[in-house]
Design a protein that fits this description.
It holds the Pfam family ASL_C2. One of its GO terms (cellular component) is cytosol. This is Argininosuccinate lyase. InterPro entries: Arg_succ_lyase_C (IPR029419), Argininosuccinate_lyase (IPR009049), Fumarase/histidase_N (IPR024083), Fumarate_lyase_CS (IPR020557), Fumarate_lyase_fam (IPR000362), Fumarate_lyase_N (IPR022761), L-Aspartase-like (IPR008948). By secondary structure, the chain is mainly alpha-helical. Among the domains are: 92 residues, Fumarase C, Chain B, domain 1, CATH 1.10.275; 223 residues, Up-down Bundle (Fumarase C, Chain A, domain 2). Helix content is 61%, strand content 5%. The protein contains 18 helices and 6 strands. The strands form 3 sheets. It has a two-stranded antiparallel ribbon. Helix 6 packs parallel to helix 12 and helix 7 runs antiparallel to helix 10. The protein binds arginine (ARG). Arginine (ARG) binds next to helix 6.
């Protein structure tokens, strides 16, 4: 009962520094509840195989429940002598039911299959929380999109004015990657739905234990088909790290725009007081720290993924202790997103958009040049020539420091005989926006359709 699950073949105990390196309770203790669930299922499997009497099973289950209560209340926790969560919990169980009964539970299982199972149970639970957080960000984006329907803004490529778009269209463009993140989570949940319990150390369970029964007991759809794969594979943890990193990257891209939009130069949005911070020296400052922390944490989440992949790449089968290094990046990713997602949702949901400024800027920077060319195309001018003519119009405006909409009938006729004052009627941001009416376009009717699509998909995910 010392929290170390081995020792018989060793003449003495481990060196202090060796044990310090080996010890994982400081991070794997968060899996305690899942390990206890595994122990209940395993005890029932031992009973089903005739290795525990009904009384012994009942005694073990009572002991596990008592230990569960002590863990939940904080009465029981890992001791400095416990190597890992499994060892600590065996010590705790033996304290309650005695060494004779408590010592029976370890038969036919290994920490290798336990830990591989626990991380799946953990991810199954935590990914639900992360998905809810992502949904809250999507809800903030769609609420703003709904509220801002009809407001034009400058659409950009290369960060340069490109074509006018609806603010709602732009905001929804950030919702779609997040919806795909939710789909990724749903996909991953399907792959996580196989229990490695019963893989034992690597070769499979002995003693007539039934992995399928344990899997069902733990709420998995089934058990793994290959015990070596069950204990040694970590592609699923890497996939989880990827999904967390991708969510981070998606939040970071939104955040970068909020940071730009809230500058004096852009002046697109004002941050709510509750979701911004001040400066200790500059009294006027209102800083977009939520967005900056999102951008910063994305780097950290990417690091978690790449670190984990680097750990995995050279590992021979089956279990290697390197695999213990998969926990912290995953836990960190979950912890960071649990903090970050509600803050980003709060930031986005409370942004005040400056509609007049957005609308005023939308047609500026020659963003209607494509519409000028398209107008010529409708007049049967080949697009290549239309492009040239529109380009010349831009050049003239640039030289004079005016916008395309400032051109007079005389200017237009001078640029090309194919141009006349009628073109000015299509040179408005709302006109340009309404013209993009194909599926996926920024026309108001399409954006309203999109809003409905987002809501419908979000409700299913
Ligand atoms: N703590 C280990 C991990 O996180 C599981 C225990 C396996 N230990 C062992 N010596 N085989 O992967």
């Amino acid at each position: 009962g010392q929290g170390r699950l081995w020792g018989g073949r060793f003449a003495g105990g481990p060196a202090e520094a060796m044990f310090e390196l080996s010890r994982s309770t400081q991070f794997d203790w968060r899996l305690a509840r899942h390990d206890l669930a595994g122990s209940r299922a395993h005890a029932r499997a031992l009973h089903a195989a005739g290795l525990l009497t009904a009384d012994e099973l009942a005694g073990l289950l009572r002991g596990i429940d008592e230990l569960d209560a002590r863990v939940a209340s904080g009465e029981f926790g890992p001791a400095p002598t416990d190597e890992d969560v499994h060892g600590a919990l065996e010590r705790g169980l033996i304290e309650i039911v005695g060494a004779e009964l408590g010592g029976r539970l370890r038969a036919g299982r290994s920490r290798n299959d336990q830990i591989a199972t626990l991380i799946r149970l953990y991810l199954r639970e935590e990914l639900t929380v992360i998905a809810d957080g992502v949904l809250a960000v999507i809800a903030a984006l769609t609420a703003q999109a709904q509220d801002l329907l009809g407001v034009p803004m400058p659409g950009r490529t290369h960060l340069q004015h490109a074509q006018p778009v609806l603010v709602s269209h732009h905001l929804l463009a950030h919702a779609w990657p997040l919806l795909r993140d939710l789909q990724r989570i749903a996909d991953l949940r399907g792959r996580l739905d196989e229990s490695p319990y019963g893989s034992a150390a690597l070769a499979g369970t002995s003693l007539g234990l039934d992995p399928e029964a344990v899997a069902a007991d733990l709420g998995f759809a089934g058990s793994v088909a290959n015990s070596i794969d069950g204990t040694a594979a970590r592609d699923l943890t890497a996939e989880a790290a990827y999904v967390l990193a991708q969510i981070g990257v998606d939040l970071s891209r939104i955040s970068e725009e909020v940071i730009l939009w809230s500058t004096h130069e852009f002046g697109f949005v004002t941050l709510d007081d509750a979701w911004s911070t001040g400066s200790s020296i500059m009294p006027q400052k209102k800083n977009p720290d939520v967005a900056e922390l999102a951008r910063g944490k994305a780097g950290r989440l990417i690091g978690n993924l790449t670190g984990l992949l680097a750990t995995l790449k050279g590992l021979p089968l089956a279990y290697n202790r390197d695999l213990q290094e998969d926990k912290e990046p995953i836990f960190d990713g979950i912890d960071q997103l649990r903090i970050l997602l509600p803050a980003v949702a709060g930031l986005l949901g409370t942004l005040t958009f400056h509609r007049d400024r957005l609308a005023a800027l939308a047609p500026q920077g020659f963003s209607l040049a494509t519409d000028l060319a398209d107008w010529l195309v409708r007049r049967r001018v080949p697009f290549a020539r239309a492009h040239e003519i529109a380009g010349e119009a831009v050049r003239l405006c640039e030289a004079r420091g005016i916008e395309l909409t400032d051109l007079t009938a005389t200017d237009l006729a001078e640029i090309s005989p194919e141009l006349d004052a009628e073109v000015l009627e299509v040179l408005t941001a709302p006109g340009a926006i309404a013209a993009r009416s194909g599926r996926g376009g920024t026309a108001p009717a399409r954006v309203e359709e999109q809003l409905a699509e987002v809501a419908e998909l979000a409700a299913r995910l």
